[in-house]
Predict the structure.
Amino acid sequence: MGTIRLHRSMWKMMASKFHFFLGIILSILIGILVVFYAIPYWWLQARVIEKLLNFAQVPHKLFTLAKPINLIEGIPLYYHPSGPTFQIPVYYQSVSPFAALVICPLLLIAAILIYRMSFIPLPVKVVFIILAFLTGVSFLYVAFISPIPPHPLYRVIIDWQFSGVIILVLIGVIFALTVFPLPGSFLAKSFWLVLTLIFSMIWNTVRISLVAATFYYFGSLPFLLMHYLMGVYIDFIYIVMFYSLSVSYLARRRTSEAGWE
Amino acid sequence: MVLFVVGVILIFIFTVMIIYTVRHYCFLWNRLFGKQRRDFQDLPGKYQPGISILVPMHNEEKVAANILSRLVEMDYLRERYEAIVINDHSTDRTGQIADGYASKYDFIKVVHRTEGKNRGKASALKVGTVFASHEIILVFDADYQPSKNCVQRLTAPFCDVAVGLVMGRVVPLNAPDSFLTRMLDLERSGGYQVDQQARYNLNFLPQYGGTVGGIRKNILKAIGGWDVTKFAEDTDVTYRVFLNGWKVTYVNIAECYEEVVHNWKERRGQLRRWAIGHNQCLFAYFWKTLTSPILKFAQKIDALLLLYVYVIPVLMVIGWLLGIYVYFFGAYWWWILFAALMFTLAYNNVGNFAVFCEVGTSVVLDRRGRVVWLLPFNLFNFFANMWVCAGAFFVTLFEGFKGVAKEEYILEWEKTKRVSGINALGAETIERKEAPRPQIIKEKAVEESKIVEKEVVEESQTIEEKVTEEPKFAALDSALAEAYRLMRERNYGDAVEVFKFAVQVAEDATATAMLEVELGKIYFILGEKKNAIQEFSEASKICADCGNEDLKREIEDMLNKLIPLSGKES
């Protein structure tokens, strides 16, 4: 067993209102940058995705449905698809109703069996049940409703590009509200904010490439799952991860008790 | 039409989530920027009323010795407290261990419950309360180990006569044991360091958690005592005390160490029990809270949100299922999809994040660093909570409809399995296999109705006895409470009068001397140095034979400082 410091309680830390204020300003600046530079950023991102798809040997064609000059103009155009996207030859898997009716009970039995295995931790069981449920629903959809996914790939790419810039604003807001008020150097906080933003941009680019390649190589069924699972949940996890790293850094860098009550 | 209904339900769920998000961020910022309440925490050591500490035990042989050792070592006047162990139908060596301590220490008493079908923590507490001879009752679970000054700090708020319930902070002592214990350590940090303290700061409702807390006996009696029909007797008492207009306070600095559950099976059982109990309270107190004439609007809102916390996982499951429906069948409703996507994105990141950043901030407040790396893994804990709480909600709903819950819940102990029995502070413990039983009170309850009658009779007898035998004690406690209240209000003139009264009714030399010291301090504050010197001199005379060396030194120090000051003035 490791050691643990038992006495912990502290009444108050001297939170920095000034850094909080600067953080708010930074997040507003990020918002302004996103509004005015989203379209060039999307095009830059599209070119990188193009390179990644070339690397993955996925045949594609980059095109645009409309050309908004900034994000504000892009929002109304959103209802009529706009922005850079890709055309990729894909195949739609068809699943026979019989196969779906066999697979779904099997998934159910597997879920029940796993749920009853006492050595598997509860969260793992719950995650498996969620995955089994999503897989079952996807099978049923493809078998009984349509082999074509409810959201076409070009649409998904535009959605994710759009959410990829909104998340940058949200990251700024989250850091301003939760990290900047903590005691510690402003430079360190800004460093972690920038690092999170860069990771977010890279991740979003990789994610779009990954879902396009999945559709090309594995068909519509895995695409359905990928689209659902790699959406907002993953964003949440990496933001929490960077938040925890930054908080840990700030807590450990404190060398004296100054500023603490 | 279906999509429209789904859209409306989703908007409702999102709105509820947003309300909770705002609540969490309010707590966070209050903890960061707000004024932190630390009422009465300058009193420990000075205000030490009589207390009865109840420790209900059921098969606790692994941990019983630890808590009893801690209670022996407490910084509290030994003659002012008693510890009552309620050994409730244990089949292991719990009773023997408790008896071993009782034979060595007079202040430890053991109540053995061996007969009768009425079991469970609330039932045990009910019996323990009957045997409690002091006005203030503190409760500790058997697997908890209070820090040395925990009891002092928990007792201090009771000097305010309006305080009915007090809660302290729980710190896991076995956090490094496993992944789960580390997760629970983080969860507890966020819950106590940020959530509870912020609720106390904002004058909302800090929740009494069934252990590491205390309640006034007469208030407990006035609100109907412990409710044996509820799984969460703690939440039940919290709401009854709060709804009756008494203050519920939280003492962040009163730390008590706990052995958290080691495996997910135990965790699931614990969470399920909490969720069912909490939901029982939701059904019982929702309307009373909403229509309470005593609570302020903000207090009502927060109390209602607290009541609903175990319903939120159900809403999240419903929202998730409807989200899947919209994903598959709402594809061409672009506006719905777009709104849902953006809203989910925003909520998921900023909303869900609120809870995580509460934990992160609490870790910083706790002055710990690396442990926060585990924060992303709390998502697994979140999944498990969602699953168990959703199930528990339907269990409560179903059993509520069936109307059988009350009869079933009162019969059994629902508790977590103790594994390691770690001794938090490394002190020696006493265990005797065949110890004499000098102070054992054997309870031979047979039928539930008889128990209740007996409790009522004994309770009233105890109170009558207390009133007849110790009238001055009661008067002294009340006088002290009033005096300290007046001092907090800066009403020093009246405080002097009340202290003078207290000096008259105090029987013990040490207590009288301490009161004289308090009087001297007030005179000093009022600028009446001669009177102050007179009171300190009086205290010095009284204390000459009291045997309290610390007090003697304190009085001498004060006199040495005051006499030269007085000379300069003249």
Summary: Chain B touches chain A through 74 residues (CB under 8 Å).
